[in-house]
């Protein structure tokens, strides 16, 4: 015998599938972002053609854009400051990745707890029927 009662709130049925899809897609996105970032920071672009031919890495185009933006519009000097301390500093990358991993860990712990509760409730239902 199984308990097939629908939830009281209509969005509760799709909540677990949303969490599952999020946990499935976020690591894939993170892996793709790491590959693109590695390409931008380490691989030297072609010297004969392309928009990055005069630069040693593609990442330098962002630095040059921020410098030009700062010289043309002094009101946006805070953007150059933010770029140099947030985008170029790996500490923020590690903090963001750490927070992301902590959220994934807590979500997996919640799902494990829910599975244990479901199995205990199923055992209770089986014991009460007999």
From TrEMBL:
It comes from the Eukaryota. GO terms for molecular function: mechanosensitive monoatomic ion channel activity. GO terms for cellular component: plasma membrane. The keyword Lipid biosynthesis does not apply. Keywords: Membrane, Transmembrane, Transmembrane helix. The chain crosses the membrane at residues 91-108. The keyword Transmembrane applies. This is Transmembrane channel-like protein. It comes from Hucho hucho.
């Amino acid at each position: 015998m199984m308990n097939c009662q629908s939830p009281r709130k209509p969005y509760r049925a799709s909540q677990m599938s949303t969490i599952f899809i999020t946990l499935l897609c976020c690591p894939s996105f993170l892996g793709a972002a790491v590959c693109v970032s590695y390409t931008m920071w380490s691989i030297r672009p072609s010297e004969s053609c392309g928009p990055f031919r005069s630069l040693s890495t593609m990442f330098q185009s962002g630095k040059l854009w921020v410098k030009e933006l700062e010289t043309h519009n002094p009101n946006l000097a805070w953007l150059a400051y933010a770029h140099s301390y947030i985008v170029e500093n790996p500490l923020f990358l590690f903090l963001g990745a750490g927070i992301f991993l902590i959220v994934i860990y807590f979500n997996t712990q919640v799902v494990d707890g829910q599975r244990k509760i479901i199995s205990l409730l199923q055992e209770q239902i089986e014991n009460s029927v007999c």
